[in-house]
Every structure is written in C-alpha cells, then in structure tokens.
Amino acid sequence: MSPQLIVTIVIVVVTIGAMVALYFAGKKMKTKQDEQQALMEANKQTVSMLIIDKKKMKLKDAKLPESVLKQVPWISRGVKVPVVKVKVGPQIMTMFCDEEIFDIIPVKKEVKATVSGAYITAVKGVHGTQLAEKQKKKKNIFKRAVEMAQEKAGAKPSK
C-alpha cells in the first residue's frame, strides 16, 4: 500500500473516533443539563429586589463567597459571566443571571425576579411597570442612506 493511502485511512479512523467520542460526551452533558434545569425549576421562587449594579466580569473578580468559587472548575474562573449586585431585604448579595435577561435588567430600580439559589432566571417590573426590551441599535450612516435610497425608489426597505 502507498503511504498516502495509509495516512488517509488513519486520518479517517481518527476523525470517526473523535466524532463518536464527541457524540457520547454531548449526550452525557445534555442529560446533566436537563437534570440541573429540573432542579432549578423545582427551587425557583419570586423575590422583590433592588438592583444596585450589573456587570459582566470574571468569576474570580466578582467577590463571590469562597464556597461558590470552590465549586467552579479552575478553567472556568477566567470566563466572563453576567453578575448582578442586588439588595434583597437588608442584605446585599452578588447573583448570577441569564444572558438573555441581562440586557433588560434595569439598574437602580426595584424588580420582582424569579430566583433559584443565587441565579436570576426571570425579571418583572414592580407595580405594573414594564421593563424595556433590548434596545434597538442605532443604524449607521450607510444603512440610513440605503434605506432612504430604497424609499425614494419605491422599493421595500431591506432588514
């Protein structure tokens, strides 16, 4: 057999082995995630809280309790996560939150939040106030010019 054929066969076998290993690892991680999600749903409660500050920062810089930092793998301590500083009753706490709701959390306002442990999963306004959804980004000058040209030409603006 030629060396090129042997190299090709080895590469194909290694690739197939890696794909099978990734499939089973992904399946295992998915079951863990489902278990954790069910646990979070079982332990959620609604709490009224005052949002003091919110940031995306590294876990080691977030001033979290030692017990929380010990549970996090060492490789994940440098990852930036959304952290919210809140006042619940007389106590000031640092909590995590979902990426999806991080942008709509208002700063220096009181909200009703669904909390599971030290993790904020949903936020609602207090006293019937509506929270603003994600604010639309301003269009740059090029996009505005294209829209104006399409409007003058009678074409439908592209999005």
Which fold name is given in CATH as the topology of the largest domain?
A: OB fold (Dihydrolipoamide Acetyltransferase, E2P)
Number of helices: 4
β-sheet strand percentage = 25-35%
* Spatial arrangement of strands, main beta sheet: 1-2-3-5-4
Shape: flat
Average pLDDT number:
86
CATH class of the largest domain: Mainly Beta
Specify the structural class.
alpha+beta
Order of helices and strands: HEHEEHEEH
- For the secondary structure, the number of strands is 5
What does the largest sheet look like?
A: 5 strands, mixed, barrel
CATH architecture annotation of the largest domain: Beta Barrel
Helix content: 25-40%
Number of domains: 2
Uncertain runs are: none
Output the radius of gyration.
24 Å
N-C termini distance: 56 Å
Describe the SSE topology.
Elements: H1 3-42, E1 45-58, H2 66-71, E2 80-88, E3 91-97, H3 99-102, E4 110-116, E5 119-125, H4 141-153
Parallel strand pairs: 3-5
Antiparallel strand pairs: 1-2, 1-4, 2-3, 4-5
Protein model, in words:
The protein has 2 domains: 42 residues; 116 residues, OB fold (Dihydrolipoamide Acetyltransferase, E2P) (Beta Barrel), CATH 2.40.50. The chain is 40% helix and 28% strand. It is built from 4 helices and 5 strands, in the order αβαββαββα. The protein has a 5-stranded mixed barrel with strand order 1-2-3-5-4.
